[in-house]
């Protein structure tokens, strides 16, 4: 039954054909702090992601939190003021406004501009854009696990994943004591946060499934949290995620931009 459930998660998480080029409109928040809500659970850490080029995504892209941390390349469609390359945004929140697929930070909005045209792009208020999902690149930084402040040792552990590279989604997480083969599953609380009330004692290891290729791939972080783990501390997993989740989106899965 667990295998069937996992396969369902894998299939359901890649039905949106993210890597295709999509047409939409985008608005912006004047303050990046508006993109740090509890929807993804990053809090103030979000301000340091991707140079502040942050985004709130509609539910079909947020995917009940599985889409948190996903990266998209976006460009506005007026060639007089907008660059061909556009900019990369990272999902840190949920957008409940169905008029636009994303609401992005001011910094991200202006980053779509040609040189010297940032203020002209900002004056648009709402811009016609096209976007596609792209791999996240954290410049060699490893996947990290943050122990959430809500954790209550030794009976409750909540963690979030940071710096998840590649073009993947984490769809399953297990935790065990280092050296043990007795794994306890964790559940997605919301956004990027996973939790369990069955916390093993001692130092902790994790294994998790990411969407990779047309299937899933197990990753094993053999020693992450020390026995004296602390709330609010970020721990290095020693792993870099570079996988690409493939989608059967023919004929649009080449990910090519339309003509500008």
TrEMBL record:
<dbReference type="InterPro" id="IPR007112">
    <property type="entry name" value="Expansin/allergen_DPBB_dom"/>
</dbReference>
<dbReference type="InterPro" id="IPR009009">
    <property type="entry name" value="RlpA-like_DPBB"/>
</dbReference>
<dbReference type="GO" id="GO:0009505">
    <property type="term" value="C:plant-type cell wall"/>
</dbReference>
<comment type="similarity">
    <text>Belongs to the expansin family.</text>
</comment>
<dbReference type="InterPro" id="IPR007117">
    <property type="entry name" value="Expansin_CBD"/>
</dbReference>
<keyword id="KW-0964">Secreted</keyword>
<feature type="domain" description="Expansin-like EG45">
    <location>
        <begin position="37"/>
        <end position="141"/>
    </location>
</feature>
<feature type="signal peptide">
    <location>
        <begin position="1"/>
        <end position="16"/>
    </location>
</feature>
<dbReference type="InterPro" id="IPR036908">
    <property type="entry name" value="RlpA-like_sf"/>
</dbReference>
<dbReference type="GO" id="GO:0009653">
    <property type="term" value="P:anatomical structure morphogenesis"/>
</dbReference>
<dbReference type="InterPro" id="IPR005795">
    <property type="entry name" value="LolPI"/>
</dbReference>
<protein>
    <recommendedName>
        <fullName>Expansin-like A2</fullName>
    </recommendedName>
</protein>
<dbReference type="Pfam" id="PF03330">
    <property type="entry name" value="DPBB_1"/>
</dbReference>
<dbReference type="InterPro" id="IPR036749">
    <property type="entry name" value="Expansin_CBD_sf"/>
</dbReference>
<dbReference type="InterPro" id="IPR007118">
    <property type="entry name" value="Expan_Lol_pI"/>
</dbReference>
<feature type="domain" description="Expansin-like CBD">
    <location>
        <begin position="155"/>
        <end position="237"/>
    </location>
</feature>
<dbReference type="GO" id="GO:0009506">
    <property type="term" value="C:plasmodesma"/>
</dbReference>
<keyword id="KW-0732">Signal</keyword>
<dbReference type="GO" id="GO:0005576">
    <property type="term" value="C:extracellular region"/>
</dbReference>
<dbReference type="Pfam" id="PF01357">
    <property type="entry name" value="Expansin_C"/>
</dbReference>
């Amino acid at each position: 039954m667990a295998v069937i459930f996992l396969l369902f998660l894998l299939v359901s998480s890649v039905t949106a054909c993210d890597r295709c080029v999509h047409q939409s409109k985008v608005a912006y928040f004047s303050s990046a702090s508006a993109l740090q809500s509890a929807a993804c659970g990053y809090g103030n850490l979000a301000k340091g992601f991707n140079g502040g080029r942050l985004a709130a995504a509609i539910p079909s892209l947020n995917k009940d939190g599985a889409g948190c941390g996903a990266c998209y390349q976006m460009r506005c469609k007026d060639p007089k003021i907008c660059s061909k390359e556009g900019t990369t945004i990272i999902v840190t929140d949920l957008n409940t406004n169905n008029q636009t697929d994303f609401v992005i930070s001011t910094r991200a909005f202006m980053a779509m501009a040609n040189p010297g045209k940032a203020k002209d792009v900002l004056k648009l208020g709402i811009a016609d854009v096209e976007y596609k999902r792209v791999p996240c690149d954290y410049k060699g930084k490893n996947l990290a696990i943050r122990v959430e402040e809500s954790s209550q040792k030794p009976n409750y552990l909540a963690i979030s994943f940071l710096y998840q590279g590649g073009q993947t989604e984490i769809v399953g997480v297990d935790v065990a004591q280092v050296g043990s083969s007795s794994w306890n599953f964790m559940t997605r609380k919301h956004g990027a946060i996973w939790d369990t009330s069955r916390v093993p004692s001692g130092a902790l290891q994790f294994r998790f499934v990411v969407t990779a290729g047309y299937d899933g791939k197990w990753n094993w972080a053999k020693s992450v949290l020390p026995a004296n783990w602390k709330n609010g501390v970020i721990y290095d997993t020693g792993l870099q995620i570079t996988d690409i989740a493939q989608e059967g989106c023919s004929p649009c899965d080449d990910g090519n931009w339309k003509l500008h």
